[in-house]
Amino acid sequence: MPTVALLEDDPATRERLAGIVREAEGLALLGAFGDLRSAQAWLAAHDAPQVMLVDLQLPDGSGIELIRRLRREAPQTESMVISVFGDEAHVVAAIEAGATGYLLKDAGADEIVQAIVRLLAGESPISSAIARHLLRRFQPVPAAAPASPLTPREREVLQLIAKGLSYSRIAEALTMSPNTVTSHIKQIYRKLAVNSRGEAVFEALQLGLLKPPAG
Amino acid sequence: MRRRWLLLAGGGVALLLWGLARLGEAPAELLLQRASFSETIDDEAAREVALPHRWQADCADCRTVWYRFELPRAEPPREAQAIYLRGVAHNSAVYLNGRLLGSGGRFSDPVARLGARALLLAAPVPLWKSGPNRLYVLVKAEQAPLGRMPAPALGAEALLQPLERWHTLLAVTLPQVFATAAVMLGVVMGVLWFYRRREADYLALAGATALWALHAFSAMVLEPPWPAPWWDAWLGGTRALAATALLALSLRAAGRGTPRARLGLAAAALFGAALAGPVGATAVLFVLAAAGALLAHAGWRAREARRLLCGLALLLAAAADGLGGTTALLPLVVGAWFAVAGWQQLLGFVQTLNAVELLNIDLEALVQARTAELHAQFDRVRELERHQLIAAERERLMRDMHDGVGGQLVSLLAMIEADRRRPGELATAVRDALDDMRLMVDSLDPVDDDLNAVLAMLHDRLAPRMRLAGVALQWDVALLAPLPGLTPARVLHVLRILQEAVTNAIRHGRARQLWFSAADADDGATLVLRDDGSGFDGAAQPTGRGLKNMHRRAAECGATLAVHSVPGHGTTVTLRLPRC
Q: Which of residues 117 through 176 in chain A touch B, CB cutoff 8 A?
């Protein structure tokens, strides 16, 4: 049975999300944590879950640290950002740290369970705003700059997502199967995490999601 | 400058001139002041005359005359002797005991003119005898009235030679030096004028200087190259012109009279100065004296040393020469005058250049200061604009919050306080509030005039809600042309209108199916939302707050909104969005 753990500092939201996962058929909740320290401590002592739901703003640090650690130590774990707005500033920083999906905090129970199941099936959710942001970020710069890590195909997919086309319409337009579209998106996420680790740290610092290392 | 200093300086100039005039003068005890004068050598009719002597009265038609000096000696002199003659008109030859000691130059016509030159002739010891010695001086003048014989000095050559050197320096060398300097400055002035035609001062000075130099160099010529009348006319003409030019310059420098009056005065002066003979010579003296007086007076009034001293020197030199000093001071002083005037003009030019340069530096500094000021001002304006933008944005967000999230939170509070325990309603209210906030956040995302991006954001927000409510959504959006003017404010209005329409369809119309389409229109884009809900009476006035808000927002973003509804047949909302 797929295992899920949860890191969210707001007790009410944590309880709600925990309840939804616990009651979902086919999902097992391994733990729900309120701060970064306890989540880290638990991970040090236990096997990593298959899915980790992570809030970014925590009382003792940023959830990005946990996402990055999982990416390093437990690459098979899928991390999902829990966000109020699903805005690109939060989500993209998390994706660059290694997250492969995001959840809105007020999403309905069915939606949440479905998002987790889809993530495990290899699908990564992406919004048009995030697609636009990624396009801007990986804009091919004339000369001298390192080539964009995205393939032309991946750019096309992102462009159509930014325009608001559904996966099936995209698949139709690019003559590929809807599964290929989702795998493209997953691939884009992976590239982001690999390509911009240093940049992501910088960006996270800029956004105030990370505190600069002491000393 | 104080008048006291001016007086002192003037006194200094007078003293200097007096001293200069005296420098080449022989001691009185060496002068031979009497001679016997005759028309031919050893003439019976010879008679005693006092020297200096103008012989016109004694021999009206003589051009050549003889002066004889009896110099008895007990024994020959021990050291070499010399005869020193200054101011002979025009040429002379000196004989001692029948031996020629020397002469000034040519005796045939046109006769040589010693002019300002002094004649120092050695009378060596062997020529002297014990007992009577005879000294003859032959003098030839161009015309009898001009003939003049000064008192010769006889003494030790060693004593007289330095005097002769001083005299030559003052009467010959220095005037030549000044004339040369004046010519060079005149050339410079001429060149300056050539490049600055409007500066008539340069031309006037260059012309006057040229005239003066012509005269000065001509007057130095010992043996006239042309027949005497022509040569005299030439000398007199250049002298008159130079003196007149000098007067004109002085008038100008003194700032007296109108240009016309100056011209008239100069013409009168020229007329007088150009007269031949002694009258013309005297007129020239008066012209120069007048010029000097004018300048000196102007300098005195303006308390300015330069003009005062130049004028005074001119005035005094003219007076001294008029009174018949042995050394003519005017050639020296006028030469110096021109040199000073030229130098002054050149200095003025250089000072103007310097001033322009300084002005340039000042201007540059000024421009830099202005630039910095402009930058600062620009920064201030930009800062102000930024503040205004922030203020406007804040106002916009506040108004939106008031209409949306604020109201929803208030009603939420009311529900909680009433404790009506309707969890479904509470959840809906909270979700509405969150949706409102998300639309606001979305509206701030830069979309670069891409309406597709705006609609995509809306779809991202709507789709989960529709799924939750079990409502089907048919989304039919073409790839749209860019729509210029999609500001955050406009984007938010569009998002809110469509959100409100969807909410109305689901909540009030109980719709199960929604159709949304967007397509380019002639002047922008047309967005249509259709539902299969219950509809309402379209003819009735829109009373709901939702509909009113939709119309207000459409008006604010320059769009037209049409709501068409028939009870039982759903509602169609059409939003036409023009380009801005």
A: 127-129, 132, 161-166
Is some CB atom of chain A closer than 8 A to the CB atom of B520?
Answer: no
Distance between CA atoms of A91 and A111, rounded to whole angstroms?
Answer: 18
| % helix, strand, coil for chain B, step of 5 | 60, 15, 25
Contacts of B438 in chain A (CB under 8 A): 85-86
Q: B371-398: b or e for each residue (b if 16 or more CB lie within 10 Å)? A: eeeeeeeeeeeeeeeeeeeeeeeeebbe
Tokens of B494: 């569009």
What residues form DSSP beta bridges with B574?
Answer: B528, B562
Residue-wise pLDDT for B310-333, tens only, equals 898 889 888 888 887 667 788 888
* Contact (CB, 8 A) for B119 and B160: no
| Residue A31 CB contacts under 8 Å (≥ 6 apart), including other chains | A5, A6, A39, A42, A46, A49
Is B468 touching A (CB cutoff 8 A)? yes
Please indicate, yes or no, whether the overall pTM of this predicted structure exceeds 0.90. no
Query: Which ipTM value was assigned to this complex?
Result: 0.72
Q: List the single range of A88-92, A196-200, B100-104, B446-450 with lowest mean pLDDT.
A: A196-200
Q: Kindly state the tokens that stand for A138.
A: 């990986």
Q: In angstroms, what CA-CA distances link B556 with B399, B494, B551, B577?
A: 13, 10, 9, 12
The rounded Cα B157 to chain-centroid distance in angstroms is 59
Q: Residue A42 corresponds to which amino acid?
A: W
Would you give the distance in Å from CA B63 to the centre of its chain? 61
Closest CA to B208 of B231, B230, B239, B236: B239
Tell me the HSE value of B437 on the side-chain side, using a 13 A CA sphere.
15
Specify the higher pLDDT residue, B465 or B128.
B128
| Three-class secondary structure of residue B531 per DSSP | strand
| Mean pLDDT of the A179-198 span | 74
Question: Which of A84, A106, A127 minimises the CB distance to B460?
Answer: A127
Closest CA to A213 of A66, A7, A61, A35: A61
Mean pLDDT of chain B: 86
Give percent of chain A with pLDDT exceeding 70. Answer: 83
Using CB atoms within 10 A of its CB, is residue B540 exposed (0-12), middle (13-18) or buried (19+)? exposed
- CB distance B242 to B287 below 8 Å: no
Q: Which residues pair with B518 in a beta bridge?
A: B477, B527
Exposed/middle/buried for residue B145 (C-beta within 10 Å: 0-12, 13-18, 19+) = middle
Closest-CA distance of chain B to residue A69, Å: 30
Q: Looking at the predicted structure, is the pLDDT value of residue B268 above 90? A: no
- Cα(A60)–Cα(B511) distance, rounded to whole angstroms? 47
DSSP B73: B
Interchain contact, A128 vs B441, CB within 8 Å: no
Residues 175-214 of chain A whose Cβ lies under 8 A from any Cβ of chain B: none
